[in-house]
Amino acid sequence: MTISAGTHLGPYEIVELLGAGGMGEVYRAKDPRLGRDVAIKVLPESMARDRERVLRFEREAKLLASLNHSNIAQIFGFEESNNQKFLVLEYVEGETLAARLKRGPLPVDEALELGRQVAKALAAAHGKGVIHRDLKPGNVMITSGGKVKVLDFGLACAMTSDCAPTKTEPDSPTMTDLSPAITADFTRPGVVIGTAAYMSPEQARGRQVDKRTDNWSFGVLLYECLTGQSLFGGETATDTMGAILHREPDWSVLPPGTPPTVRLLLRRCLQKDRNRRLHDIADARVELEEVIADPTNSALGLAVAAPGARKEKPLASFIPTILAAVAIALIAAFATWQFIPHPTPQKPVLRKLEIQVPGLQPDERLRPLISPDGTRIVYVAKNRLWVRSLDDLEAIELAGTDDASSPFWSPDSSQVGFHDGSRLWRLPVTGGTRSLICITPQSISEWGGVAWTADNRILFTTALGGPFWEVPAGGGEPKAVLSPDPDLVRDFHFASELPDNAGTLSVMHKSKGGGDIADTIVLVKNGSFETLLEHPGEELYAPVYANGHIIYGRAQTTGMIWAAPFTLESLEVTGPSFLVAESAELPSVSRDGTLVYSASTYLGIGQLVWLDRTGADIEVIGQPQEGLMWTVLSPDNTKVAAMATETGVYRIWINDLVRGTRRPFAVETETPWISGWITNDRLAFTDGNTTFTKSVTRSDPPVILIEDNLYTISDNCRYGATEQRLGKSLDIYYYDLQQGNEPLPLLTSDATEFDPMIRSAGDLMAYVSNETGSNNIFLVEFPSGEGKRQVSINESVRPFWSRAGDELFFMTVQENDSVLMSVGVSTEPELRVTEPRRLFSTTKANLNVNVYRSLDVSADGKRILGVRNVTTGVDTRRITVVENWYREFEKP
Q1: pLDDT tens by residue, 187-244
Q2: Which of 358, 549, 593, 612 has the fewest CB atoms found within 10 Å of its own CB?
Q3: What is the rounded distance in angstroms from the CA atom of residue 72 to the CA atom of residue 117?
């Protein structure tokens, strides 16, 4: 029964009916609380009595809630009013692709851009284990600004046994009645799901489906966008499915301007044998991005010759001459070959192995670098350099490398260099006296880079803004060789030398005025740079040259290593990138083709949980999320701010503990970080350069608090503290937010001080320092910095305060076991700290505490908020070695 305009479902006022289908009626409605239009999808009364239908509707809500992506229509809630269950969805204003196609095909450039956005949406869904299964023009909405939203994941299923084989009902062109594998009654073979013209062959046959089903539908949709013609139309569903199973596409109707790589992509998507079909829709997105940037495919040498070009003489006229020459050459070669021994040529062999690296701290990143001759690996552990020869079982610590970071190799592999916070050094790889190269103008951050050229120059970038620097390898004063335009370029990261002094590979970060591309791989040469590779909106890192390719890291949902064909002759990328290794980062390659990399710091899937002070479970909070971390309770304990990934991009999420809901914190900043709660409604966050505050419930814009990156803020918003590396080591500075905008030194020494945490009263600060030779927790009076007191006695990190400020918690590492500790703190009549008390093993509790802050404590101090590992991220304490890596990707 259609709901009349003006009727209320809960707080929502129905405006008009938008459409109806087998699984519900969709209405436009007004949400008076937030002053916005929403889409309401109501389960029809005829279905509400069917338990299986209700279960499927609830399943749709859960699936949609996991798919928060800019190209997927968002779900706001799943509610019930007057015995009617309904979804509250994002209302997308615009026209469907089906309506647009009634006016004819899209121009090629518009079709490719639409396909790119649809591919992004599907890649995000597949990354969550969700298949759409009903992708068609009617489920693709185009806004007036050209934004694409994919609608109606109601037929989707997780990529598990839920996608059961189905039975065909051949007489309905759109068969959306029943769902597989909701309960035991629905796991029978029986129902074809989807719209007939866009079904994959396996759907049409009633077989089990996987994500390649969506890849087929994507190909059909893109073909229709380019041609304006239905690919597999028929008068009945039987006719249509017969065409799907037996008819090949008519490729001649594609417009002449269709790029060759797009034609190839369509053929890969529309393979009837799904084992030969495109396996990953993310590859389609990459292909489309690259062809949008290079419409003629000129970089691949596939461009069609221009009309009117000079015609060459037919090849047939040369055949007699060619045959005669070939015959003579063959006779001569055979006569010579008879008298020469011919050993069987041995091709290089592909080999893979792993090297375990014990002793790393939970937050210590492993970056292995293989020597140019492929015989040794150098890496940093325990703030010192270690060298592992590939013909030895043990790594050797290099003396004189305290506080080492940013290691690099000499071209002849005889020396290694490193940075100690303020200086560059080099020393023989077999050990010996180190030699000073230079004092660096800035400290080199973790994402900076150093390259030693074949003509004995050292090039380096700090990744903290500023230029590329150069200094003689024998020592001297560094000079700037590339000072980028600050309006366009924020900084450079990494440095890797091409052979024959052909230039230096680096990653460029654009400034806010430089466009929306986060990272770009560039070639730095002769005081300038040129772009080689771009992946819009993605983090790129560690580009290196190897065997006719640029190997580089690419962060999406997990870290991955990719390769792009590259020629040294023209210094150009000559083909599309391809995946080399998943769950991997920071590649390094020797001249002979030995690739090494470390496992990425992917955090896996996390689940918010409450535990008691012994580590026993109390309650599970909400639904799991990828990369869940940095959890901070609001002062009244009604909300949790947390960070989690969405298609590889970190966002802040607000979990409402009272209502049991979760929503993204609406800020446009790329990878925001939580600084702390200002009030129960207002959160402070940073983009790495500026700290803002914003309401978590209202849509007001963010307000700038300070032009710096604050790690912690006192309750009254009077003070904030940050880490800065102005000298040799990392130090702690603070701001009096009511007095000025200049950072004031608090803890500056030769030791490294970090992780500042101000007590709620603003009178004490906890922090971590390595002044004792290992990381330990210290307390000082704030903001004077006086009365320093060591709190921990073992390797300890990540301090955090109780709400009342009478207890300080921190993590201690004990023989690869992470343990939550606490000390009591009082200030009357003087500062007193109790002996550390062990609470519980976070390892046994299966909590994720390895990277960043992921613990907090309730206001009454009785419960611990943690992140439970649902699926564990990869072990980051290993190095993968791949000999002759390119053999894995050679065509047979």
Answers
A1: 223 334 457 788 888 888 777 788 899 999 999 999 999 999 988 877 666 678 778 8
A2: 358
A3: 10
Active site positions, annotated? 134
Nearest to 108 by CA among 1, 335, 261, 237: 261
Phi-psi region of 164 (alpha: psi -120 to 50; beta: other; left: phi over 0): beta
pLDDT tens sequence across 237-255: 667 877 888 888 889 899 9
Query: By three-state DSSP, how is residue 17 classified?
Result: strand
Question: What letter represents residue 181's amino acid?
Answer: A
Q: Which two tokens stand for residue 741?
A: 């905008």
The answer to whether 694 touches 701, Cβ cutoff 8 Å, is: yes
Residue 361 has pLDDT above 80, yes or no: no
Would you say the pTM of this structure is higher than 0.70?
A: no
Of 44-58, 133-147, 418-432, the one with minimum mean pLDDT is 44-58
Cβ atoms 240, 232 nearer than 8 A: yes
Tell me, what's the pLDDT at 810? 94
CB atoms within 10 A of CB 858: 15
396-410 as b/e: b if 16+ CB within 10 A: eebeebebbbbbbbb
Q: Are 5 and 15 in contact (CB under 8 A)?
A: yes
Mean pLDDT to the nearest integer, 783-806: 91
Q: 702 or 559, which is more confident?
A: 702
Q: How far apart are CA 158 and CA 289, in angstroms?
A: 27
- In sequence order, the 6+-apart residues with CB closer than 8 A to the CB of 209 are 131, 133, 157, 163, 200, 202, 203
Element (H, E) at 617: strand 617-626
Type of residue at 92: V
- Averaged pLDDT score across all residues of the chain: 81
DSSP element (H, E) containing 889: none
Whether the CA torsion 258, 261, 267, 268 is positive or negative: it is negative
The three-point CA angle 319-321-327 to 5° equals: 100
As a whole number of angstroms, the distance between CA 727 and CA 857 comes to 35
Q: Which residue has the higher pLDDT, 738 or 805?
A: 805
Half-sphere exposure of 424 (CA within 13 A, CB side): 36
> 856-857 and 578-582: which strand pairing?
unpaired
Dist CA 514 CA 535 (whole Å) = 15
- Give bridge partners of residue 376 from the DSSP assignment: 389
First CA to last CA distance, the chain: 61
**Cα distances (angstroms) measured from residue 647 to each of 125, 641, 655, 670:** 9, 19, 19, 13
Residue pair 241/230 in contact by the 8 Å Cβ criterion: no
In sequence order, what DSSP letters do the residues of 261-309 get, joined into one string?
A: HHHHHHHHHT-SSTTTS---HHHHHHHHHHHHHSTT-GGGT-PPPPTTP
Q: Tell me phi and psi for residue 332, to 5 degrees.
A: -65, -40
Stated length of the chain: 892
What are the structure tokens assigned to 558, written together? Answer: 């997990």
- In tens, the pLDDT along 625-640 reads 887 888 999 999 999 9
Give the pLDDT score at 833.
94
The pair of structure tokens assigned to 236 is 């009945």
